Amino acid sequence: MKSVLHPTYFPDILTTAAMVQSEQILFEVCDNYQKQSYRNRMYIGTANGRLLLNIPVKHTGTGGHKKTADAQIESSFLWQRQHWRSLVIAYRTSPFFEFYEDELHPLFHTDYESLLEFNKATLDCIFELLDSTPNTHYTTTYKMNYDDSEIQDLRMLADAKRKPEMTLPRYRQVFEEKTGFIPHLSVLDLIFNLGPESLSYLTDLDLQPLMRSKA
Predict the structure, then answer these.
(1) Structural domain boundaries in the chain
(2) Does 215 score more than 60 pLDDT?
């Protein structure tokens, strides 16, 4: 089955599972940019619970809508340094952080102007870490609705206000004894904790509850 999704910032586990289980991924890049979405944010697990990491995006100042493809990162903030430091603090004791650290480090020490280009880079990195080679394409026009018999429209997964559609199977986490299991984090949490087992976790995840929740 084909799926259409938004390219988000180190996507959450559910979104990543949908991607690795899709025969073909169509990334939506022709929509209007939406605030408070996973386009520019992710959540990680820390000793104090869930932590939001947010990429600052420039305001257009025109009052009109801007396309996601035109969204520019506000580089006057040291957000990359802050995000990398947060990841190191949260996951340096995880089983596989050091194993993947060298692949991730350049993303937080290279300047990016376009949010879309940065998100593409994070997705490429995720697929490399998972040893997955999906068939990916990008939209050339915006389409409001898709025929579910031809393509799964999963663009709603980028909505940060949307309540989780399903319960995720527990996996070991760094601070689980203190915080309890925290679901629906960035797939980085899964990768740092499960390492090479992550792809099996994602491919075995039953997405039928997600499909039913779309109705």
Answers:
(1) 2-213
(2) no
